[in-house]
Task: structure prediction
Amino acid sequence: MNGQTIGKIGVGSWTFPWATGTVLDHRPKQVLDPPGVVQRAKDLGVHVVHFLDNLPLDKCDDDVIRDAGEVAMEHGIEVEIGTRGTDPEHLLRYLQLAERMGARLIRTMGGWHGAPASLGEIDHNLRKVLPAFGQAGVRIALENYEAYRTSDLAALVGRIDHPALGICLDLTNSFGALESADEILRNLVPFTISVHLKEFAVERLEFLMGFAFRGKPTGRGMLPIQKMFAALSAASRQANVIVEQWPPFQETLAKTIELELNWARESVDYLATTGFLTK
Result:
């Protein structure tokens, strides 16, 4: 054991972006639905599943939500859910979904790509709903991404200072704002209650003109995983770690979906060896 265990390994809808039909012009005929994602978690031997905005639960039929919750409960799998935006009515709708599925954490983000809300608006909206979340025993995990400086998000969460509010730490997201790993961890670790983990490598483009972030199986890229886990452990933060993936398209969609499942297996196996997580 390298340090204090910080949480459990999990998978979710962003572990399987191709199978869940995230890319609209490459949707499989049989889209992986919420009960199917839970089954993938069971097959991979993990006990956390996170449904996110690429498989929005508020767009699912009631029987699908019921079935996913029942399968998760049957196999002892903890449910976390997620969305985007901080509109109070929308967040309260997701609170109802969380209560139906037995979820105790909802991840959200400041807004949609290209249309981030102001920090003032986020602050105002969160303060309106946090009393209801606190009463229900459900936490909001505000995820960092490139639209906001991590120092600003940390200041916002610290200023609100509510036990039902924390950070969903995604180290890779804020590299898009040219923040360093040390800076991101210093700002966000004190508030972290959830972790999304996207492995990547920076590779030169063809003709050497530019670079690209390309997805990799966890442990085979450049993400400073041990540094992140050590920082969380040293701060005594408890947070489940959800594998997210950016698998490149292969010759066919079927081969691509097979690749992302193989990557998921490899990623879960790697995380089990880090000493900081349990299945």
User: Anything to note?
Assistant: The CA atoms of residues 6 and 238 lie 5 Å apart.
